[in-house]
Amino acid sequence: MTVYFIGAGPGAADLITLRGARTLAACQVCLYAGSLVPEELLAECPPDSRLVDTANLDLDAIERELVAAHEAGLDVARLHSGDPSVFSAVAEQMRRLDAAGVPYEVVPGVPAFAAAAAALKRELTVPTVGQTVILTRISQQATPMPAGEDLATLGASGALLVLHLGARYVDRIVSELLPHYGVDCPAAVVAYASRADEVVLRGTLGDIAGQVKSAGVLRTAVILVGRTLGASQFRDSHLYSAERDRHAC
């Protein structure tokens, strides 16, 4: 028996990976966050599988479901939105499974920031403009940020920032980034990336907060800030350059 932590992708049911879909179809138990994972994905589960919506379960209850399946010899698909490697809360579940002696594997998925970049039709790394992307969030009452990971510190790098879980705090984000990026720095917000109700907002640090409020975006969104979002004049990459020696080792 194995627990499979499966990245369900950013929202569209067809953005789950082939491996993820095959694994989901082979598991007798599926735990999923009903508020984030599209219902269409559940159609991939076996007809007689046990489906458990974890939206209202705490960590103890989730652990009990996983351990009970292990004791019954049943494989479990633990569906998480996006990719399990970022802001997925799988680390504490893995820790519990390690302690209980329950085996598990991870199946990666399409992360929200990749779906947001696709919606914006932008490459987040552009030659001579920006080659660094920082995935982060802001400190909130329930989960403070570690020392040195505040926006003022990260913003000093000038790298493109992708902020998760921050749409409600857009005013605060803008005020903390303005000293580092300037009022004219390109900014964007993508909510419900890849879904039918996707919302794409483009602007600058000077106007993006107003756009977010006007659109009523409060959750399931990523905020992107950085010069690569608006880059048009930049050097072509060396990868496809005619001057590149394609016979070199």
Automatic annotation (TrEMBL):
Top EC class of this enzyme: transferase
Record flagged with keyword Transferase: yes
UniProt keyword S-adenosyl-L-methionine, yes or no: yes
GO biological process: methylation
Pathway assigned to this chain's UniProt record: Cofactor biosynthesis; adenosylcobalamin biosynthesis
Record-linked PROSITE patterns: SUMT_1 (PS00839), SUMT_2 (PS00840)
Entry-linked Pfam families: TP_methylase
EC number(s) from the headed UniProt entry: 2.1.1.133
Domain Tetrapyrrole methylase residues, every copy: 2-208
Keywords assigned by UniProt, alphabetized: Cobalamin biosynthesis, Methyltransferase, S-adenosyl-L-methionine, Transferase
Protein's recorded name: Precorrin-4 C(11)-methyltransferase
GO terms for MF: precorrin-4 C11-methyltransferase activity
Protein family: Belongs to the precorrin methyltransferase family.
